[in-house]
Amino acid sequence: MAEKVKEKKKHKGLKVLGVIILIIALIVGIGFGVIYYLTKPVDDTSDKAINVGGMLTSQNIDYKEASADGLENDLIVKIMQVSWKFCDKSDKKRMATQTPPENVVKVKDIPYIDDGNPYHKFDVFYPEGKIAKEGLPVIIDIHGGGWMYATKDLNEYYCMELAKKGYCVFSISYRLVPDVTVNEQIKDCTEALAFIRANMKDYPANKKTVMLTGDSAGGQLALYSTILNNNPDAREIFGTVDTKLNIKCLLLTSPVTYAKSGGWFSIYTKKMWGKDYKTKSTYNYMDLNEIMELANDMPPTYFITSSGDTLAHDQTVNAYNYFVEKGYECEIEDFTDLRDGKKLPHVFSVLDPFDEYGQKAIDNALDYYQKSLLK
Hints:
Elements: H1 2-38, E1 42-43, E2 56-57, H2 75-96, E3 104-111, E4 121-127, E5 136-142, H3 156-164, E6 168-172, H4 182-199, E7 205-215, H5 217-229, H6 232-238, E8 247-253, H7 266-269, H8 288-291, E9 301-306, H9 313-326, E10 330-335, E11 338-339, E12 342-343, H10 348-351, H11 356-373
Parallel strand pairs: 1-2, 5-6, 5-7, 7-8, 8-9, 9-10
Antiparallel strand pairs: 3-4, 4-6, 11-12
Helix pairs in contact: 4-5
C-alpha cells in the first residue's frame, strides 16, 4: 500500500514538473515570437521604416554583407534591436522638444558612395553670412548608436550647434550591424572621410584644419579611422582607403573602445565584429590598447565623459589613462555636475547641446581644438 502511495506521489510530481516545463516553454516561445515580430524587417520606403540594423529590406539595395552572416538571428542582437527600436522613439520625442539653432546652412544627403544606399551619405552645416577666403575650420562627426542604430540625423542639432559657433561641420552615416560588422563600418567611415577630403573645396572649409569627433560607438569609429589614417600597414589589415586627411585634433565623447575586455558589455560588443570575430584578421585589434599598437602618431585628443555615464565612463577614463601612459597629448573632462538632481548621462553634450552643461562641454572642447591648431 505504501509503495502505491509513493508511486502515485512520484507520478503526480512528474506531471506537475511536466506542466511547469510546458509553461516555461510557452513563455519562452511567446517571448521569442514577440522579439521576432518586433524585429521583422520592413521595406525601406515604408512609413514604418526605422534606422535599426537588420530591420530594412529593399527592392533595389542589398543591405547585407556576407561578413555579417548569422548575426541577424543572434538572440542578443535581436534583443538589442528591440532596445534600439524603443531608443528611436525616445530620441524622436526628445528632438521634438528641442529648438535647432538658426542662421545655419544645411546641405543634406550627399552620397559619398554612389550606390543608392541611404547609409552612404553625409550632411554639411556651416554658419550663414560672409566667410573668410581660407574657409572655416572643419569638424567631421561620426554619430553613436551602439553600431546598430541611427544615422547622421541623430546628431543633427549637435552638428548645427557646432556650425553656429563658426565651423564647417560634416556629419556622416554608415551601415549598421547586423547587416555589416564593425570592420565594414570603419571602411564606410574612411570612404566618407576620403570623399570629404577630395571635395572639401565645394564648401567653406579649410582642409588644413580638421577635427574628427565621435560619440559612444562613433567615438570608437573615429579613433580607428584616425589610427588607420596614419598607418598604411593598419589599412591593409582592415582593408580601408587612405583618407589623406590632415587630422589636427580628435574629440572623443564617451567612446566605447574595449570590445573584448569591456566588462559585462563585451557580451554585446564582441558580436558587433561578427559571429566569427575570433578568426578574423582584426581580432587582435578589438580593444583600445591593441589598436593603439598600430598608431604611428596621434593628434591632440580631448575626452568627455560624466559620472552618470553608466555605459562608458570607465572605458573613457581608461582610454585617457592609456594615452597619458603612452605620452600622447590629451585632456579629459569628467563631469560630476547634477542636472535636476541627476548625474549627467551618457553622451549628454551630444544629446542636449543647448543646456548649460552641453554648452560648457562643447565650448571647452572647441577651445582645445583651437589651441591644437596653434601648435
